[in-house]
Amino acid sequence: QKRNPHELEFHQAVKEILDSLVPALAKQPKYMNAGILERLVEPERQITFRVPWVDDQGKVQVNRGYRVQFNSAIGPYKGGLRFHPSVNSSIIKFLGFEQIFKNSLTGQPIGGGKGGSDFDPKEKSDGEVMRFTQSFMTELHKYIGPDTDVPAGDIGVGGREIGFMFGQYKRIVGGNQAGVLTGKGIHYGGSLARPEATGYGTVYFVNEMLQAQGQSLEGSTIVVSGSGNVAIYAIQKANQFGAKVVACSDSNGYVHDPDGIDYEIVKRLKEVERKRISEYVKERPNATYHLGCEGIWSIPCDIALPCATQNEIDEDAARLLVKNGVKAVAEGANMPSTLAAIDVFLENGILFGPAKAANAGGVAVSALEMAQNSMRLSWTFEEVDKKLHDIMIDIHRSCAEAAESNGYPGNLVVGANIAGFTKVADAMLAQGVI
Ligand code: NDP
């Protein structure tokens, strides 16, 4: 805390992980002796840079760009870019730190990184987004590459932004550069099922959590927060499993549709028309719109899937969910539950899937995109989806086994942290003090 004052989100992410590593470290003093924890919490490299661009009125705007290259013990840095006005070094560091363990859990050879900018793509024209992203990449390209650091999307960075950044990277560096970014369009090196991967993966993970308890998704009522990339495909996959999603949201408010959220409408409104979720009720007479996104957790449900942003479920929201009978919570977003909220879930015996396990499907398919780029191959949607499903089953199994063998049966927070940590720590031990 002394070294990183004011980085509250980063402290929160570090505390969650270090608290649950205690049982593993007590058994393995070699990690303590080698200073693994001290090295893990310090990024290998952090880059901040100026991003000047010209808006549609001809005025010069300046944003700040970030890339944190946190840990490359098991592979090239890998993690998304976030464009949102709330972005600062604490947010990027918490995301980069979490990414180390998440990427390890996927079983793919990828290290942890994250980046972004305080640029707000909302209400910007395509031309403004293009000029900003080109300026951003003009600086970022010096630090990334297919074998060193491979960024992807996150909040505010979807197919349009990745396309512009990829074009600029190629223009500067030249040649075939498919492997430098993931989340690319399907006609220039992208992977089928990458847009769907995080949302689908989260639902596959919940399915495993439920099945381990002899329960199933079929017939359950689900609340999904957010209406972006992760939320949209979580809704679609939950419907395919026979569950009913009754609510979703954006940062202004939420919609409650007791007949079940129509995934096609949300997808069109958000991906094609780039409209607010309030527009949904114009097409669904039984649905209601409510101002204020936090209120979504007051809707009774069997399963809650927070898929919007960090700290969106606080202790009060967690207590309300428990009071209303929630059985399972899985984090599609990164760190959407506060530490106090997680305690409420665990103390009340709620099945809880932490982000680094439950939403690892996105980065897992990004790694599959990198593999396809290296081999100059394209797998079918079904092939990628099957690999994703298998990876999520494996992640659940390794978290459950690590929890069990360390004396915390059923605690997937402890399980995910220990399973993700062990592989990275062993790689760091093998590579000496670097
Ligand atoms: P999008 O930008 O596509 O969607 C984000 C959604 O969350 C929007 O509905 C947005 O509403 C809402 N939201 C964003 N910020 C806030 C806020 N401060 N308060 C309330 N609502 C907010 O992003 P993604 O769907 O890609 O990402 C969502 C979460 O999932 C993030 O935590 C991200 O880190 C995580 N994640 C994403 C992965 C991916 O593959 N995309 C992979 C793994 C994790 P509005 O439109 O009003 O801003």
From TrEMBL:
Glutamate/phenylalanine/leucine/valine/L-tryptophan dehydrogenase C-terminal domain segment(s): 191-432
Tree of life domain: Bacteria
GO BP terms in the entry: glutamate biosynthetic process
Residues reported to bind substrate: K78, Q99, K102, G153, S366
Keyword entries, A-Z: NAD, Nucleotide-binding, Oxidoreductase
GO molecular function: glutamate dehydrogenase (NADP+) activity; nucleotide binding
Residues with site note (Important for catalysis): D154
Matching InterPro entries: Aminoacid_DH-like_N_sf, Glu/Leu/Phe/Val/Trp_DH, Glu/Leu/Phe/Val/Trp_DH_C, Glu/Leu/Phe/Val/Trp_DH_dimer, Glu_DH, Glu_Leu_Phe_Val_DH, NAD(P)-bd_dom_sf, NAD_bind_Glu_DH
Active site: residue positions: K114
Any one GO CC term of the record: cytosol
Sites where the protein binds NAD(+): T198, N229
Self-association state and partner proteins as the record states: Homohexamer.
UniProt record similarity statement: Belongs to the Glu/Leu/Phe/Val dehydrogenases family.
Name of the protein in question: Glutamate dehydrogenase
Lineage, uppermost ranks: Bacteria, Bacillati, Bacillota, Bacilli, Bacillales
